[in-house]
Request: fold
Amino acid sequence: MMEPIIHFDRSWQGEFSKRILEDGPWAKAGMFALAYQAEKERLIPSFHGLIAPGRLPHLSLHPHQIETARTVVEEMHGKAILADEVGLGKTIEAGLIIKEYMIRGLASKVLVLVPASLVLQWVSELNTKFSIPAVPQRKSYVWGRCDVVVSSIDTAKREPHRSLVLEQDYDLVIIDEAHKLKNHKTKNYQFIQLLKKKFCLLLTATPIQNRLNEIFYLVSLLKPGYLGDADSFAKTFKSGQRAVRNEERLKALVNQVMVRNRREDTGLHWPKRIIQSFDIPFSAEEQIFYQALSMLRNNGIIRGFSLLTLQREACSSREAAFLTLNKIYRSGSAPDCETIWQSIFEKLNAVKQNAKAEKALELIHQINDKVIIFTEYRATQLYLQWFFKQHGITSVPFSGGFRRGKKDWMRTLFQNHVQVLIATEAGGEGINLQFASHLINYDLPWNPMRIEQRIGRIHRLGQESDVHIYNFAIRGTVESHILNLLYNKIHLFEQVIGELDAILARIELRDVEKQVQQIFEESESEGEVRVKLDNLSSVINSEKALAGEEVHHAAGGHS
Amino acid sequence: MQQAAIHDFLTHFFTASGCTLLPVPDSDVLKVKLNKEIDKLLMNRPFYWHYIEQTGGTPETATLVFRTDDKAEEGELIHFGSPRLHQIFDAALKLAPYIRLYQNLPPQSSSALEPWLAINAKISYKCDLKKDRICSIGLQLINGTLIDGFQDILDKLPLLPKMPDYCYTLSPLIRIGSGIKRIETFLESVLKSEPTGWADDAGKRWARDQELLDSFYEQQDPKPETYFQEKEAIREQYQPRILVQFINAGLFYLKSSTFLPGSIRDH
Reply:
């Protein structure tokens, strides 16, 4: 038998006696009953079920999000790993849980730790979607004075903030991108461990099919001892460095503290991805200019790496290449090469048309609907805006560096007024553009995760049409190699969002970009490039196959 | 709370607080010119009021427009989740912590009014989960009669802030302080006799998590700070508590026959 502690609030009694003695002041007649009614309306009648959805009539919640919040509150007692696949709305689930605890009066002091680039987005979502008065951490007094604070871990863990944060008694701590906390020796991990927290949510899209140790340390952050201590965990569940023993038991245990919704289980309609690649030939002048760039390396003016950069830029637009060329020229590192420079700039000036831009224009006319164009280069972005304008198409620019307000404004303009949005960065600063369904990859980033992020802008919850992706590559250039690798070999564009990250993490190959760069720089011939890229893609593919098998074993997820 | 009930609540709130309701064409719209007191409570502009009071200027209080129907064209949409409604709920609580009222009797029916102490409270059952109930208890300050559900009865009576003519009040025999004690004792005995299944379950969850924690730190002696901190956090999470939170309290002078059928308990 557990005897509850009964606590009477007596703080009002002194004042009441005083008013009797002094004959008032007394409340107005009707107000007394209204105050009673207000409290009566706000009562929480049951331990069970969720109150929050009924108070958020304008937020359209999906059944899996409501069920997740209920599971976390009722069955996991407020300590859980939220590991939904990307795009299923983990932020919404977290917001719903915060709201539920706040309405029930179980949480008032809440700390949300997220990557720096996401702070303002979290603040705005909590405020606008949930009416939760969250504030970004800007001044050090915020820690003590504000109830719901959003900050980056990096800020929070540094003095003078650190000691202030550790002084607070948090009712609820939420950590986004929690997979970054897998290493218990890091300062971040130890900092989170020290936080005083009654309830805790860890959000991650790349759950824990990676290393067993990562499962152990992540869960131990939430519920120390739940998977035993480090030794007993190793004895029970590990065999060798990576293999699992007693897998069923581990899975069952983990599922008690983790919710993982999968796209296929949500019963939601997921639009198809329709991918088209365009192998676009340069115009004669562009071709001549592109080839001329090699002269710079052959004459020792630039090195392999810079040539690669220039070639990629030339594939995008002469404007993009010009900026870099001009910089190298002005740095004056090779004064005797004036004739070479002159010849190159002449060839650049001779370029009159941009093959890709014309293709894009043709597509935009054909599509006759909202189109998002992603380019890697600011100069290309400006050029395209100008070029489209010449042909009667207005567009808005979008860059990662814009302030939040400007981003929202551009998004609104795009949604309501113009056909084309030209973006240079999809970034972590997620803007959601699911009202558009056509995306042109004008040039291709070499880091596959960036492609994922681009596609993720439109292929997400709320997208109602099939998603069309158009990839541009110039025939016979570095670009066509990349397209071949990403598209033909590792089938990146068909990939389910979120899987790739997990795969790259497994083979510790997050920096694919660097790998690809190295291949280009160190290879002597086209043939060598091809062979090496083939090798890289087969490594990724074999790991993908392995992951596919394991995904359904370890860490299967709550259902 | 349905939209119509919200509309009624707002109407009553602004009327009771002395604000001016302005005419509107649409029955789902409410337009109200705030008075100074409510403007200060709702509009969150302390600097403005500080300035007006310092300079002795003429204040211009705000006019608010609410709508309780999505389709109405004008005003701020109010539903049960809107922060504005909860701000108004909070304002009602702030404005009415203590009261004294007299039952209004028809003229010439000269009679004695008996003193009652009433306490309204919210009772919360809290562990890692939480639920509440409301309670309203009245204590007759002469003979110690206790009545549960007191506010519901008050709501049906005509009450006035001033003693009606031809009426007089009887002096209490029970002092306010001991009256409050009596109500507490009564409540405590009720709460202690309630089933504790919810608390037992929370206790089991608590014990289980505590065992896990102990096993995690079993090898470490002395235990690190994180152990004690986590232990405290688990206690915070699961410790079953019943909180009796004050809503408001009042003195009521009522005609002695008012409660003839309803009295539930004599002391």
Notes: Chain A is about 50% helix and 15% strand. Chain A has a mean pLDDT of 85. Chain A touches chain B through 70 residues (CB under 8 Å).
